[in-house]
Amino acid sequence: MKNKLRPGKGVQCALADVGASEAIKMGQSFAVKLKARKSAVAGVDQFRLAYPAIHELGSKQPWFLPFMTVIGQRLLEKAIWGMFVRVFLGCSLALLDVSATFTW
Description:
The longest helix is centred in the last third of the chain and has 22 residues, at about 80-100. The protein is built from six helices and no strands. By secondary structure, the protein is mainly α. The chain is elongated, with a radius of gyration of 17 Å. It has one domain (about 15-100).
């Protein structure tokens, strides 16, 4: 699986109308949706809300959303941007905490 960020494509069709080109467009935007959120669960939820076909698939097949969550967790573990966001956010919060503790 390639870990490339691509801009989200507007695919607003029902599950029955999804063809190969629509599926590719939705799949390519998964990493972007995942990157925009702090956790895989939130990223998958954003992905589900962005595409009606994914929302419908998640309603019809209960295994699909947990499956996508695990894929999202693995992508975040291996992605450089996922690690960068976590480290940067952690360092920033620690520095803010230290600066708020001490009064200059």
